[in-house]
Amino acid sequence: MNILTIETTCDETAAAVVTDHLEVLATVVASQEKLHRRFGGVVPEVASRAHVERILPVVDETLRKAGVKLKDLDAVAVATTPGLAGSLLVGLVAAKALSLTLNIPLVAIDHLQAHIYACRMSADRAVFPCVGLVVSGGHTSLYECHAATDFDLLGSTIDDAAGEAFDKVASMLSLPYPGGPSIQKAAEGGDPEAYRLPRAFINDTDRLDFSFSGLKTAVRYQITGPGAADFRNIHLERQQISDLAASFQAAIVDCLVTKAVLAILQTGLETLCVGGGVAANASLRQQLTHAGEQHHFEVIIAPFELCTDNAVMGAIAVERLRRGQVETLDLDIQPGLIRKH
Question: What CATH number is given for 124-306 in this structure?
Answer without folding.
Answer: 3.30.420.40
